[in-house]
Amino acid sequence: MSDNLGPRLRAAREAQGMSLRSLASAIGVSPSLLSQVETGKTKPSVSTLYALVSHLDVSTDILLGREDQLLTAAPTTPAADEPKLPTPAPAPGPAFRQIAAADHPVLEMENGVRWEKLAILDSVDVEALRVTYQPRGSSSIEGHLMRHLGVEHIYMLSGELTLHIGFETHTIREGDSAAMQSQQPHMFVNLTDEPAVGIWYITGRNSALQQTSAGAESFAEGSADGELNTAVDVLRAFRS
């Protein structure tokens, strides 16, 4: 649940052998902010959370309390003269999963954003979420665009969201559906006075992460080299 998010992030960081300061530097936030997230004194924004799961190489399932997935240290790279053993195929999961309405794991994030984890099968590379943006809520607390791996599929149940993507702005209203490549710089904002609620399916993110080095996902929540305030800044950073 949301109350356990900080300790789970800390456990994931320690399992990777990373210091708090080095992780904070890697994702472009201050050590004090990361410390407050790990101790539960503050909540991360959506973009900060994505940065953390990317650099720590963990699934959001772990952060949402899926007890059947364990936090383990990253595997060591075999020496050059060591034979590389084939990776065993994962054990097949259940063919059916149901989560009662009261049992959906929940993450409450900063700036009025709530993720509710929906049922998925272990064998499918998809994250299923019921997402709520409160009035004036945003996926980034400082108005920075972010990007991450995967493809987002969205269906708005109620309310409306404004999507800033690249140099374009789109309004997704009740009953609308949308899909986008999440590596495009983007940000969601609820500019209305009513909550915006939608269903999100994010596909292909885990398999894409496995094909890239840790931290390949980029997030514009600020950086040690300077803030990224516009789409132009973000695109320049991606090219550097």
Description:
The protein starts with a helix and ends with a helix. Helix content is 24%, strand content 22%. The strands form two sheets. It has a six-stranded antiparallel beta sheet. The chain is of the alpha+beta class and 240 residues long. The chain contains seven helices and nine strands.
CATH superfamily, please? Jelly Rolls
Specify the biggest β-sheet. Answer: 6 strands, antiparallel
Stated plainly, the CATH topology is called Jelly Rolls
Helix and strand pattern: HHHHHEEEEEEEEEHH
Q: What is the CATH architecture descriptor?
A: Sandwich
Radius of gyration: 18 Å
Structural shape: globular
By DSSP (H or I, 4+ residues per run), the number of helices equals 7
What is the helical fraction, as a range of percent?
10-25%
Low-confidence stretches: 67-88, 218-240
Give the end-to-end Cα distance, rounded to a whole number of Å. Answer: 38 Å
In short:
The chain is an alpha+beta fold. The protein has helices at residues 5-15, 20-27, 31-38, 46-56, 60-63, 205-210, 231-239, and strands at 106-109, 113-117, 126-133, 151-158, 160-165, 168-173, 177-181, 186-189, 196-203.
